[in-house]
């Protein structure tokens, strides 16, 4: 059996200009990065702005196992399958972060015969967007520390710094550090820390900005610190937004690549959904809507995280109206939610599946709360049995929800034609009353209460003293009515990763609140979620190698 990278390396890719031509994009409207990747120009946005919008399809999922459940694979395969049934669909995905690539979960280019290529480039440095975001964030941090070193005219209190440095890698040792050691010439000593790049506010801003001007305005609003007398200091006060924008001028342009079956795919931005808002860039999604009859995009992890934020943050800010939700489920993840250990997920276990299927039911109900029709996609593994598949089909029938057995991993687009047809039929026939879950004018506490009760099914929300203090400061700055972005474990509907299935009789604990003024939302940190992940005992990096000819192996 071929690995993902072996399948990708055997792909017959088209030159990127040929891929662009399929969407009516000329060579003058792309900026090639080699033969098989390109940036999409601002001229293309101008050219397509009056095109009618296609139908927007969101791919999300149930609560996953630690290995992930194949949302990207389904997204890619659905795009391939749309082409098979004669539909013009454009894929809009996030870019991978190096953290998971070298950690446990893997990359974000799909799998099997449903991948975007060149897979190695995409999963590693790609076009440098992650590095540009890292540099822009860390430039702001450097300017802040330099200001304090050079006289501190603003009177910044080094005990009240609100931003972290970042790195696009899992590195737990950098979560909490002390900087400025070694004498006066090396700066003001203070406690600092790192977060992973995809959890930075700069990443969120890039993914929500409409153009360069909007990007610069948002960057200027980043809250960086407070003064000794309690006044806020923003990036603009340090004069940082111009240089930060210069670093991001190319990164704001979406990237064009292709699927294994040579269909166009736009990849741009990469925030995690468990610690950020979990969606690709608004620019990429809007461009996909202008270029195709259908735009297929995904939101990270389970629908309790990625999909909720997609609707309540991205769709709210971008004026998007989705047409359908594809909810990805796997037999193994539902057995995991039924209490089966990871080592036994390949064995048939109908009783555990029947116990864990409550997780699927809850996610279907949650998506209906946004007024959207749902199609369930069973991402089939070769270990799934007919008896187990029948359990899922029966549940979906009881909930009047179309379900499709997707064999996309093994068969590519051909394995997803039934799913594609059911999605198209659902869009044409099902009722669509899309709306956000909460009113933006509500308080932060009220919004969190609605999300906790309606999506997580919690009894309520409790705030630590630190969270209460942060909330008062945020409200005092005039941001008390912004949308909320919950940082929470992806493995459970609750904030406790051990509570699987559909937990009951629990409350969500908000331990802190962080204002992302430039992005336009408040981040609520719950449970023990970390914004800088660590590597597992046996990280994926140990299997990755490169020979003398530059050929990479072990990358999935």
Produce the secondary structure layout.
Elements: H1 4-9, H2 16-21, E1 30-32, E2 38-40, H3 42-48, E3 55-61, H4 71-84, E4 89-93, H5 98-101, E5 110-111, E6 114-117, H6 119-123, H7 129-149, E7 156-161, E8 165-167, E9 177-179, E10 190-192, E11 194-196, H8 201-208, H9 212-220, E12 223-227, E13 232-234, H10 241-248, E14 255-259, E15 264-267, H11 282-291, E16 294-298, H12 303-318, E17 324-329, H13 331-337, H14 350-356, H15 358-368, E18 374-379, H16 386-398, E19 403-406, H17 408-411, H18 417-429, H19 444-456, E20 460-463, H20 465-476, E21 484-487, E22 507-516, E23 521-526, E24 545-546, E25 552-553
Low-confidence stretches: none
- Major beta sheet summary: 12 strands, mixed
Give me the number of helical elements.
20
User: What is the gyration radius calculated from CA atoms?
Assistant: 23 Å
End-to-end distance = 13 Å
Helicity range: 25-40%
* Structural class by helix and strand composition: alpha/beta
Q: Could you tell me the mean pLDDT? A: 95
Beta-strand proportion? 15-25%
Inertia-based shape: globular
Give the number of DSSP strands.
Answer: 25
Summarize this entry quickly.
With 556 residues, this protein is of the alpha/beta class.
List keywords for this structure.
20 helices; 556 residues
């Amino acid at each position: 059996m071929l690995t993902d990278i072996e399948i990708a390396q055997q792909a017959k890719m088209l030159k990127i200009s040929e891929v662009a031509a399929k969407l009516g994009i000329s060579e003058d409207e792309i900026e090639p990065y080699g033969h098989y990747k390109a940036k999409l120009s601002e001229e293309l946005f101008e050219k397509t702005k009056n095109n009618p919008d296609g139908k927007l399809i969101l791919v999300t999922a149930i609560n996953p196992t630690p290995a992930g459940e194949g949302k990207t694979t389904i997204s890619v395969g659905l795009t391939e399958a749309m082409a098979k049934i004669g539909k013009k669909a454009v894929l809009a995905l996030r870019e991978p972060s190096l953290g998971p690539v070298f950690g446990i979960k893997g990359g974000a280019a799909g799998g099997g015969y449903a991948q975007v290529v060149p897979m190695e480039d995409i999963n590693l440095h790609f076009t440098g967007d992650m590095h540009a975001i890292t540099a822009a964030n860390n430039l702001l941090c450097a300017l802040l520390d330099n200001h304090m070193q050079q006289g501190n005219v603003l009177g910044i209190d080094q005990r009240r710094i609100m931003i972290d440095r970042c790195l696009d890698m899992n590195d737990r040792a950098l979560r909490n550090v002390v900087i400025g050691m070694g004498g006066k010439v090396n700066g003001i000593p203070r406690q600092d820390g790192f977060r992973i790049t995809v959890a930075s506010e700069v990443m969120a801003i890039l993914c929500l900005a409409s153009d360069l001007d909007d990007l610069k305005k948002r960057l200027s609003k980043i809250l960086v610190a407070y003064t000794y007398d309690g006044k806020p200091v923003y990036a603009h006060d340090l004069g940082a937004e111009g240089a930060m924008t210069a670093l991001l001028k190319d990164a704001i342009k979406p990237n064009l690549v292709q699927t294994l079956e040579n269909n166009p795919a736009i990849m741009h931005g990469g925030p995690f959904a468990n610690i950020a808002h979990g969606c690709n860039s608004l620019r990429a999604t809007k461009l996909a809507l202008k270029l195709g009859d259908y735009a297929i995009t995904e939101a990270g992890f389970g629908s309790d995280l990625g999909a909720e934020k997609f609707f309540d943050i991205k769709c709210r800010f971008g004026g998007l109206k989705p047409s359908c939700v594809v909810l990805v489920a796997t037999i193994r993840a539902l057995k995991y939610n039924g209490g089966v250990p990871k080592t036994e997920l390949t064995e048939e276990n109908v009783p555990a599946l029947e116990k864990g299927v409550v997780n699927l039911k809850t996610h279907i109900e949650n998506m209906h709360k946004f007024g959207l029709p749902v199609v369930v996609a069973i991402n089939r593994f070769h270990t799934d049995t007919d008896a187990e598949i029948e359990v899922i089909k029966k549940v979906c029938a009881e909930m009047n929800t179309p379900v499709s057995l997707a064999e996309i991993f093994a068969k590519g687009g051909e394995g997803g034609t039934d799913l594609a047809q059911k999605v198209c039929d659902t869009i044409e026939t099902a009722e669509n009353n899309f709306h956000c879950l909460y009113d933006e004018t509500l308080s932060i506490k009220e919004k969190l209460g609605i999300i906790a009760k309606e999506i997580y099914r919690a009894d309520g929300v409790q705030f630590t003293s630190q969270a209460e203090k942060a909330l008062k400061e945020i409200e005092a700055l005039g941001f008390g009515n912004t949308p909320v972005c919950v940082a929470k474990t992806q493995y459970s509907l609750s904030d406790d990763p051990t509570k699987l299935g559909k937990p009951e009789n629990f409350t969500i604990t908000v331990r802190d609140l962080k204002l992302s003024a430039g992005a336009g939302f408040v981040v609520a940190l719950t449970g023990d979620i970390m914004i800088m992940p660590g590597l597992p005992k046996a990280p994926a990096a140990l299997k990755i190698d490169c020979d003398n000819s530059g050929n990479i192996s072990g990358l999935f």
